[in-house]
Amino acid sequence: MAETQALGWIGLGKMGLPISARLAAAGHDVFGTDREQQRISEASDAGVKPAATLEEAARHGIVFTSLPDDNALRAVALDGPLLHVMRKGSILVETSTVSPGVSAEVAQAADSAGIAYLRAPVSGNAAIAHTGNLTCFVSGHRAAFDTFLPVAQGFTRAQKYLGTAEEARYAKLAVNLMIAVSAAMMGESVVLARKGNLAWQDILDVLTNSAVGSPMVHYKAKSLETRDFSSTFSCRQMAKDLDLIVGAGHATEMAMPIASLTREIYGALVGRGEGEADFISTVKLAEWSAGLGEPDLEQTGGRLA
User: Fold this and answer.
1) Which residues form the 3-hydroxyisobutyrate dehydrogenase-like NAD-binding domain (predicted)?
2) CA distance 93 to 301
């Protein structure tokens, strides 16, 4: 077991709360803060020590941020006090999905402040964050990674060091692009099968037991068996990530036709009021486009026809 230590945590949302709670349960003294008092209270119930201010959370040797987007990271780390109140020689671990551009700005500011900056976006969702089965991709100072690794092993099952700059940001965007496109394909696939009179459960069985039966297909097929579209990662969040993906591609002079088309699919879902539904709601959009309503519970064994 890793030696326990005091950690600062900024951002106690869908991912930040379960991860910080897991680290607290492992024996670390985690001092957490958030803009919303309710989240601080929930984290406190889970063993995270409340930090009254960002400055209080930032005084420790390793400080994590878990923030929703570029604007939030900029507000905390560039326009806000974070890098000014962290002590020299400490480590900033940024776990969010943000653009390589804003991340590079934070890296420059952290270096000027004498702070080691690690880009450590996590892969996985809030439903499994408490289990320790997330993965993380990390880039930044190698010595800081070595210090961070024992802590990372407390909330991730795999950790990959990728380089000294923005490599981890591109890795996370690449993974999320594959997930988004896979969800779009899965939506059209199951609706094509419905148009061909396959039973709902039968096409899910075909997909999961075929060559395309990836871990994501297996995971989402379980939800689709009962048409559970409660959000593990929302359509709105996926649209945001696709904006980052397309932007990163364009910034590197790369055409992004598949990513751009997939972004339009999620834009349509948000426009139809599905912004907070799970990203596999691509199925619902494909059904609407095909002139199909929801299947009825007509088959034996609880199958949907």
Assistant:
1) 170-285
2) 48
Of 14, 172, 240, 284, the active-site residue reads 172
Tell me the CA distances in angstroms from 121 to 63, 194, 221, 230, one per residue in order: 14, 37, 26, 23
pLDDT per 10-residue tile (average), the chain, 305 residues:
82 95 94 94 95 93 96 96 95 97 98 98 89 94 97 95 98 97 97 95 95 92 94 95 97 97 98 97 97 71 42
Is it true that domain 6-165 has CATH number 3.40.50.720?
yes
Helix (H, G, I), strand (E, B) or coil at 114: coil
**Interior angle at CA 161, CA 174 and CA 19, nearest 5:** 80
CATH domain 171-302 topology: N-(1-d-carboxylethyl)-l-norvaline Dehydrogenase; domain 2 (1.10.1040)
- Return the H-helix or E-strand segment holding 162: strand 156-163
Active site residue 240: no
* Domain extent listing, the chain: 6-165, 171-302
pLDDT of residue 305: 41
pTM of the model: 0.92
Q: Which residues on neighbouring strands pair with residue 134, listed in sequence order?
A: 156
User: CA-based angle 103:48:89, to the nearest 5?
Assistant: 45
Query: Cβ neighbours of residue 214 under 8 Å, at least 6 residues apart?
Result: 182
Helix (H, G, I), strand (E, B) or coil at 91: strand
CA distance 172 to 122: 8
Structure tokens, 31: 């001092």
Alpha-helical runs (H) found in the chain = 16-25, 37-45, 54-57, 70-73, 82-85, 100-112, 126-129, 142-152, 167-195, 200-208, 215-225, 235-251, 257-271, 282-289
